[in-house]
Amino acid sequence: MATTAPQARTVLERFPAGDPRGSWPADEYAAAQRDQGTDAQVVMDLGSDQFLVVTGTTTR
User: Which residues pair with 43 in a beta bridge?
Assistant: First the structure.
Protein backbone atom coordinates (compact mmCIF):
# COMPACT_ATOMS: atom_id res chain seq x y z
CA MET A 1 0.00 0.00 0.00
CA ALA A 2 1.48 3.34 -1.06
CA THR A 3 1.02 6.45 1.02
CA THR A 4 1.62 10.00 0.01
CA ALA A 5 2.59 12.82 2.31
CA PRO A 6 0.32 15.85 2.26
CA GLN A 7 1.69 18.73 0.24
CA ALA A 8 2.95 21.65 2.31
CA ARG A 9 0.97 24.87 2.11
CA THR A 10 2.33 28.37 2.39
CA VAL A 11 0.00 31.06 3.73
CA LEU A 12 0.44 34.24 1.71
CA GLU A 13 -2.17 36.37 3.48
CA ARG A 14 -4.99 36.16 6.03
CA PHE A 15 -8.38 37.90 5.91
CA PRO A 16 -10.97 37.96 8.72
CA ALA A 17 -14.11 36.00 7.91
CA GLY A 18 -16.19 38.71 9.58
CA ASP A 19 -15.29 41.25 6.89
CA PRO A 20 -18.45 42.95 5.55
CA ARG A 21 -17.41 41.91 2.03
CA GLY A 22 -17.03 38.26 3.03
CA SER A 23 -14.32 36.39 1.13
CA TRP A 24 -14.04 39.01 -1.66
CA PRO A 25 -10.80 40.60 -0.37
CA ALA A 26 -9.20 37.15 -0.16
CA ASP A 27 -10.50 36.20 -3.60
CA GLU A 28 -9.21 39.46 -5.10
CA TYR A 29 -5.79 38.98 -3.50
CA ALA A 30 -5.59 35.38 -4.74
CA ALA A 31 -6.54 36.49 -8.27
CA ALA A 32 -3.80 39.13 -8.22
CA GLN A 33 -1.29 36.49 -7.11
CA ARG A 34 -2.40 34.16 -9.91
CA ASP A 35 -1.99 37.04 -12.40
CA GLN A 36 1.64 37.23 -11.22
CA GLY A 37 2.17 33.50 -11.74
CA THR A 38 1.61 32.20 -8.20
CA ASP A 39 -0.84 29.30 -7.85
CA ALA A 40 -2.87 30.89 -5.04
CA GLN A 41 -6.17 29.57 -3.68
CA VAL A 42 -8.53 30.71 -0.93
CA VAL A 43 -9.33 28.32 1.91
CA MET A 44 -11.29 28.80 5.12
CA ASP A 45 -9.55 28.19 8.44
CA LEU A 46 -12.42 27.42 10.79
CA GLY A 47 -10.18 27.42 13.87
CA SER A 48 -9.11 31.03 13.42
CA ASP A 49 -12.27 32.15 11.53
CA GLN A 50 -10.17 33.52 8.68
CA PHE A 51 -9.91 33.16 4.94
CA LEU A 52 -6.36 32.17 4.01
CA VAL A 53 -4.71 32.69 0.64
CA VAL A 54 -2.39 29.74 0.24
CA THR A 55 -0.06 28.12 -2.27
CA GLY A 56 0.80 24.46 -2.51
CA THR A 57 -2.77 23.16 -2.70
CA THR A 58 -3.93 20.29 -4.83
CA THR A 59 -7.22 20.31 -6.68
CA ARG A 60 -9.35 17.18 -6.50
Answer: 52
β-strands 50-55, 40-45 pairing: antiparallel
What pTM, to 2 d.p., does this model score?
0.79
Q: Residue ranges per domain, the chain?
A: 10-55
Q: What is the pLDDT of residues 5-59, one digit of tens each?
A: 566 889 999 999 998 998 999 999 999 999 999 999 999 999 999 999 999 865 5
DSSP label of 51: E
- The answer to whether 23 touches 38, Cβ cutoff 8 Å, is no
